Amino acid sequence: MSIVVVGGGIAGLAAAWGLGRARAGAVTLLERETQLFAHSSGKNAAIYRSVESPRAVAELGVRSAALLNELLGSREAWLLPTGLLLSSRTRAALEPLAAISTEVGIAHEWIDQHELVSRVPSVTGGHATVALWIPGGGVLDNHAISTALAREIRARGGCIELGHDAARVLVEAGRVTGVESNGEIYRAEAVVIAGGAWASQVGATCDAPLPLTPVRRHLVILEPDAPLPAHQPTVWDAELGAYFRPESGAVLASPGDAVPWHPEDPAADPAAVELLAERLGQMAPRLAGSRLRRYWACLRTFAPDKASVVGADPRVRGLFWLAGLGGHGLTAGAAAGELLSKCVLGQPDPLLEALAPRRLLQVE
User: Fold this and answer.
1) Which residue, among 221, 179, 223, 176, has the nearest Cα to 320 in the 3D structure?
2) What 8-state DSSP symbol labels residue 173?
3) Are 17 and 181 spatial neighbours (Cβ–Cβ below 8 Å)?
4) What is the H or E stretch that residue 85 is in?
5) How far apart are CA 104 and CA 127, in angstroms?
6) E strand residue ranges, 224-318
7) Beta-carbon neighbour count of residue 132 at 10 Å?
8) How does pLDDT run across 23-72, given as a tens digit for each residue?
């Protein structure tokens, strides 16, 4: 089988790797930029957080860890195991995440305010009274992951074409026949749309868009009065959506903003820095007055139900999706690629029903 994968972020690389690993056929990956991981996959906070809702995303996160161990040889090769603290004013806000952790086998522990402050003094005076400690969380090595995926795709006979936009998905008699890119035709029996914020636009070229919404989120580098310890855990406020972690003696933080945006690289908005200061004032007052070093914006793309989209399009035969990974791409992407390969090969998996594109459409 000949397969074209559209997109060179984590979704596209994971799809191509999963297909190659499953020996699904000859895989060609098309990326419109001149480098891989050019957009959200290379501009995120690199946090491994498998504790997520809905449950299907958490399941993918757990499976991805095992796949990344296989891909890179050890956990230490792709993860700095600093741990993750999900904090909140009330236990009730964290109980659904604790339940999912129990169901999918993610190690976790409840800690009180005293222990939270002991582990992360920056939150002294903040509103959190309780937290979930996730020892398996940490900081991802995005470069190591992207490099290993690209290497393995090529080692398994796959082809990666940079600077190749997907101008049009070609369809004849209701079945894909390939992709037009830069005036060339790449013939294929299957096409996988894995274009991140641009995924629905690619689907629209063959009259098969999906209701996927890119949202803008900001990341900020702050310089506190005293550097955070390098191995201090990431702190993520479950109610505010804001988070922070150490980054080379500074602090990498986000206000957790989510403004619907069009699919293009977003310009950074100074108002996001003000929002971060406000939210840090609630969760980590000692950091709220830190000096600003720089800030930027990137896109995260969601389906309406916030679950990933993995599987066959019900409208066009041979068209598949790996999209809507939200902020979970680096955490869950490897497993999503494996799941996509099962779908292409017609192999069953319970997660395929939960994540199928069909759920987003009114189709028979």
Assistant:
1) 176
2) T
3) no
4) strand 84-88
5) 29
6) 234-237, 243-247, 250-254, 259-260, 291-302, 309-312
7) 23
8) 999 999 999 999 999 999 999 999 999 999 999 999 999 999 999 999 99
